[in-house]
Specification:
Radius of gyration: 14 Å
Bound molecules: zinc ion
Helix content: 10-25%
Strand content: 15-25%
Shape: globular
Number of strands: 4
Distance between the termini: 46 Å
Number of helices: 2
């Protein structure tokens, strides 16, 4: 029997869904860049986590030379590096229109 694939669950407390999205923001210090992760979530919880990410973003203190984009929603795909995850702009627009 093959091992079941490794699954990641939504970070929301008591949510039993599998995580489908990563809420993250592109960060750079001018030399290296990475995706700063705020949370992993399912489709239903994406709005909550995007909101949470934006609050954390508003509170983040950057030092000189650092840049941080507002957080977005990225489609979580196993085996893909952060840099290649696809940003879900349409979903973001839809969720932000609700708040
Ligand atoms: Zn969830």
């Amino acid at each position: 029997m093959p091992m079941p694939p490794y699954q990641v669950f939504c970070y929301t407390k008591d949510c039993k869904n599998l995580a489908k999205y990563k809420i993250a923001a592109r960060w750079s210090d001018g030399v290296v860049g990475e995706l700063k992760t705020y949370g992993l979530c399912c489709e239903e919880c994406a709005g909550i986590w995007l909101e949470r990410g934006r609050q954390r973003f508003a509170e983040s203190g950057l030092t000189v030379g650092e840049t941080l984009e507002p957080p977005g929603i990225y489609l979580l795909e196993r085996g893909l590096r952060d840099q290649t995850l696809q940003r879900q702009c349409e979903l973001e627009k839809r969720l932000l229109a609700l708040t």
